């Protein structure tokens, strides 16, 4: 869900943490500004302390009658994903304009490119997670959005037997973001989950004997 927000008379400045050299060649103008510890930030009526990605407290900047807030800290408070693209000098907040397939960097013993295992209902997805071990078992894999994305769009199908226990968990907080049941008759199911601020995701299912779980990695994506 896209979020709209307003900071009263304060303007949010684009102040992302960046490595040395990121801004080389950028059109920067030097100004004299002041860290302003007198300004307090509230979100939905509750006082909050903006922090950087390392957990350190950060202060607003006052310049020429305007107060600037670090965009990463504000985004974290509001549960909005934020990232910086140094190639295009673009700050992206919320959902990305294009999805990023979870196939990139995916590692698991059930990862496969075998066409016999990546094909589901006549379509070859090229890369897939396909757990067909053939016994009653738990099946799981990890994803690592690293707080860069707003949403996970995951496609998943039960094969052979229904899956009665399926969930997606914020691994760091041990909090379930989504629980579901997967029926064979439903085919490939699309599940959307808000993952703003989440570093690691744990995807889990209980698989019955003679059952399997199929996840196409090329059409499941972060956004």
UniProtKB/TrEMBL annotation:
Keywords: Signal. InterPro entries: Cu_amine_oxidase-like_N, Mao_N_sf. Residues 58-105 form the Copper amine oxidase-like N-terminal domain. The keyword rRNA processing does not apply. Residues 1-24 form the signal peptide. It comes from the Bacteria. This is Copper amine oxidase-like N-terminal domain-containing protein.
